[in-house]
Design brief:
GO terms for molecular function: DNA binding. The chain is of the alpha+beta class. It folds into two domains: 87 residues, Multidrug-efflux Transporter Regulator, Chain: A, Domain 2, CATH 1.10.1660; 41 residues, no CATH class. The chain is built from four helices and six strands. Strand 5 and strand 6 form a beta hairpin. The radius of gyration is 21 Å and the shape is elongated. The N terminus is likely disordered. The structure holds a DNA duplex.
DNA sequence: TTTCTGACA
DNA sequence: TGTCAGAA
């Protein structure tokens, strides 16, 4: 039985690795830049062996993608990296919150309803997240 | 063929 | 940063 590290995901994302060529195709960042970014300590590749072909984790691939987004927004490389790091920090928290508080999703005619369960321990109100016409909102309903 | 390092414009 | 050379 394969062992899943990190989280309880069905796919062991730690085993999803990409070569520098793949990262170039996916993110649009040149190999020259990737090597430079690594040299500057902005990103990290898996095998730090000298002369060996670089490999990047899925996490790093995401990180690089986010950096390019902030770069496109006009940030300097340094601040784009900082922004990407901040974004990275949010992911575990967002995952945990959704995993524990999102009880289900209902699809109705014109809208989707996310069930976030009871508002508090009195169990008198339930809170829902609404997605309708590309807009989102909350709704609280009494459940006597 | 692809990637690596180092170097130059 | 792009690109080129010479070596894995």
């Amino acid at each position: 039985m394969a062992e899943l590290s990190g989280n309880d995901a069905f796919i062991d994302t730690d085993k999803l690795i990409f070569g520098i060529g793949q990262v170039q195709q996916i993110t649009g960042v040149s190999g020259r830049q990737l090597r430079y970014w690594e040299e500057q300590g902005y990103i990290q590749s898996l095998n730090q062996k000298k002369g060996a072909a670089r490999e990047y984790s899925l996490h790093t691939l995401f990180f690089i993608f986010h950096v390019t987004r902030f770069l496109d927004d006009g940030f300097t490389l340094q601040s784009a990296v900082d922004k990407a790091k901040q974004f990275d920090r949010q992911l575990p928290v967002l995952r945990q919150f959704l995993r524990e508080q999102l009880h289900g999703v209902d699809f109705q005619d014109d809208r989707s309803i996310l069930d976030f369960g009871y508002v508090d321990s009195s169990h008198t109100q339930r809170i829902y997240g609404i997605v309708k016409n590309g807009e989102t909102s909350f709704e609280i309903k009494n459940v006597e």
